[in-house]
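Backbone-to-sequence.
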């Protein structure tokens, strides 16, 4: 069966395809239907994920999956949170993480904890919706390191790997990431649903 990934973020789309692998026969995205992303005016990750998934399904009548994700720093009351992709400048990964590094400039190690969160929503043409969430915990570094991944990956340090998310191979990232956790939960929820 065919899955619409309700996203315009190419790096995110690539990860979703890698993680869901052979679960679907074909993947399509907003650009295949000349759809611009809807305005994400929700207050939470789940609301924004539902907005994107519903918009995709309404416009194509395809089974649609959306990911709304971001980085949360408890010391900064959850910033950048739902504003992660537009923290300093919409879609500019470098400016966004530099802004965060700057805000944490004089903040000691024990207050630099953070987590990535991904909320996956699937919407079916019959109106059914499914939701799953994944989180991964780490610490914000003082300097960026690594070239892989996207977004805040270069400043997100994982104790388990003694490396930033951007220093992991895509294989390793796709085993442990917030997105991987949420998508694996979604696979379990799906069971036979998509073949019905
Ligand atoms: P779509 O809405 O089109 O899917 P987007 O990039 O705007 O693309 P979000 O609104 O969900 O997506 O914002 C997610 C932002 O959170 C993303 O732009 C990154 O800045 C950050 N982020 C999410 N997942 C990440 C990851 O795996 N690694 C690093 N940063 C991530």
């Amino acid at each position: 069966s065919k899955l619409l990934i309700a996203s315009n973020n190419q790096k995110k789309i690539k990860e979703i395809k890698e993680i869901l692998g052979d679960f679907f026969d074909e993947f399509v995205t907003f650009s295949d239907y000349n759809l611009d992303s809807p305005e994400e005016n929700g207050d939470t990750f789940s609301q924004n994920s539902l907005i994107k998934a519903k918009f995709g399904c309404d416009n194509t009548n395809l089974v649609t999956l959306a990911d709304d994700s971001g980085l949360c720093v408890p010391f900064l009351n959850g910033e950048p949170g739902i504003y992660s992709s537009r923290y300093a400048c919409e879609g500019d990964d470098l400016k966004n993480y530099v802004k965060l590094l700057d805000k944490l400039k004089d903040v000691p190690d024990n207050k630099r904890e953070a987590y990535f969160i991904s909320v996956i929503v699937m919407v079916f043409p019959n109106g059914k919706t499914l939701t799953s969430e994944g989180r991964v915990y780490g610490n914000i570094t003082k300097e960026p390191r690594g070239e892989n991944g996207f977004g805040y990956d270069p400043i997100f340090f994982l104790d388990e790997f003694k490396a930033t998310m951007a220093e992991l191979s895509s294989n390793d990232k796709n085993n442990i990431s917030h997105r991987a956790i949420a998508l694996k939960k979604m696979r379990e929820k799906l069971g036979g649903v998509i073949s019905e």
